[in-house]
Design brief:
This protein is of the alpha/beta class and about 400 residues long. It folds into three domains: about 1-150, Alpha/beta knot (3-Layer(aba) Sandwich), CATH 3.40.1280.10; about 170-220, Trp Operon Repressor, Chain A (Orthogonal Bundle), CATH 1.10.1270.20; about 220-405, Alpha/beta knot, CATH 3.40.1280.10. It has 16 helices and 17 strands. The protein has helices at about 20-25, 65-75, 90-100, 115-120, 140-150, 160-165, 195-215, 215-220, 250-260, 275-285, 290-295, 295-300, 310-320, 340-350, 370-375, 395-405; strands at about 1-5, 30-35, 50, 60, 80-90, 105-110, 125-130, 180-185, 185, 225-230, 235, 240, 265-270, 305-310, 325-330, 355-360, 375-380. Strands 14-13-10-16-15-17 form a six-stranded parallel beta sheet, with helices on both faces. It has a five-stranded parallel beta sheet with strand order 2-1-6-5-7. It has a two-stranded antiparallel sheet with strand order 3-4. A hairpin with a 2-residue loop joins strand 8 (about 180-185) and strand 9. Helix 2 (about 65-75) packs parallel to helix 4 (about 115-120) and helix 3 packs across helix 5.
């Protein structure tokens, strides 16, 4: 791969590219890297590369003339990237895409930014390291080169090293251990010493998912997901629309399931004032009262729970939080006809541009027809081993469905 870097501070790149993997990649011919001083392309004798912004404001702006001149002079079919805080955050998916290119040109922004005409005339893509600001694009360029080059076949030597790292399969990496087998009273997990490769692989996959759900739940699902337990409008066994009583066990257990699978908020949807007052007291007990000290894990799960008097109110609160109205997925044990299968649903949840999602679970004998008919999708029912009995509690059905959507098992 050929990489050309444009910067106002070329000396910053001397040491990082003369060590470790990047040094070996250059020595073995996998990487050809040149650093260019943008000042060399300035037209005036003082080599000025910045000026005051039109419209006023603090700081300076990098000028268009030297930057565009440098880019055009060096460009020989390069993919041209501007490193800037306003760019799209760098992901492993982007790194993988860039590693397949033959030529990259990295332009390091500085000061308050770059004249917009540079981007319009001479840049193919804007990339940021994340939602924070550096003094310039130089450190971002170093990180980008390191991330990209190590994916070029042959650079690491062992191709499995890159394949098993964090983000390679959309998850953070599983815990790693080496000798000694015990250190300060902490032992290496027995499974890693078993020699059973199937058990080890299963353990690593499970631990990777646990770590990801705890630290980066957004990697498991790129869409913000909310759940709602609906007590009205639901049906009774005769098909009439009714309201059901709230049971603490449903609130507790579904809250724990939602916390386990990275759900943003869990709405308990009930229209009755007297019943709702009891719900509020229970939630206050766990959020601010003695329950928080008594069982911190339970309190953490119940901190997701919110009371709403209607589905519309819950949807409005999601809209205020996310900036757009949620897509509604309805659930039932009795859906017939066209439904959304779990393999397709998991694929939809990985869509970067998807709307926020609210999954509704019904109490009683399920959500009313009015709710299911206006839903955007009807999620496939949970089916048991036989055809004659299909009466899971709502908390059990919710756990199964959320595991199928966000767990590390097979997509069903």
């Amino acid at each position: 791969m050929i990489v050309d870097i444009l910067t106002l501070f070329p000396e910053m790149f001397t040491s990082p590219f003369e060590e470790s993997i990047l040094k070996r990649a250059r020595e073995k011919g996998y990487l050809s890297l040149d650093v260019h001083n943008i000042r060399d392309y300035a037209q005036d004798r003082h080599q000025v590369t910045d000026d005051y912004p039109y419209g006023g404001g603090a700081g300076m702006v990098m000028k268009a003339e030297p930057l565009v001149s440098a880019i055009e002079s060096l460009n020989k079919g390069h993919h041209r990237i501007l490193l800037t805080p306003r760019g799209k955050p760098l992901t492993q998916e982007t790194v993988r895409r860039l590693s397949g290119l033959k030529k990259l040109m990295l332009v390091c922004g500085r000061y308050e930014g770059v004249d917009e005409r540079v981007t319009e005339l001479a840049i193919d893509e804007e990339i940021s390291l994340g939602d924070f600001v550096l003094s310039g694009g130089e450190l971002a360029a170093m990180a980008l080169v390191d991330a990209v080059v190590r994916l070029i076949p042959g650079v690491l030597g062992n191709e499995d090293s890159a394949a098993e790292e964090s983000f390679s399969e959309g998850l953070l990496e599983y815990p790693q251990y080496t000798r000694p087998a015990e250190f300060r009273g902490r032992a290496v997990p027995e499974v890693l010493l078993s020699g059973d490769h199937a058990r080890i692989a299963a353990w690593r996959k499970e631990e990777a998912l646990k770590k990801t759900l705890r630290v980066r739940p957004d990697l498991v699902c790129r869409r913000p997901v909310y759940c709602g337990l609906v007590h009205f409008p639901v049906k009774d066994k005769t098909g009439e629309v009714v309201s059901t009583s709230v049971t603490p066990i449903d609130i507790h257990d579904i809250a724990r399931t939602c916390r386990t699978y990275g759900i943003r908020k869990y709405f308990v949807i009930s229209p009755h004032p007297a019943q709702n007052e009891a719900i509020r007291k229970m939630l206050d007990f766990w959020e601010e009262g003695a329950g928080k000290k008594y069982n911190a894990n339970r309190a953490e799960a119940l901190s997701l729970a919110r009371l709403a008097e209607s589905i519309d109110e819950a949807a409005e609160r999601v809209t205020r939080e996310e900036g757009e109205s949620p897509e509604i997925w309805a659930t039932s044990a009795r859906f017939e006809g066209e439904t959304l299968g779990y393999a397709e649903a998991r694929s939809m949840l990985q869509s970067e541009k998807g709307k926020p999602l609210m999954i509704l679970f019904g109490t009683g004998w399920g959500l009313s027809d009015d709710v299911t008919n206006r839903a955007d999708f009807r999620l496939a029912p949970v089916k048991g081993a036989g055809e004659g009995f299909n009466h899971l509690s709502v908390r059990s059905a919710a756990a199964v469905m959320l595991d199928r959507l966000f767990g590390n098992g097979r997509s069903l």
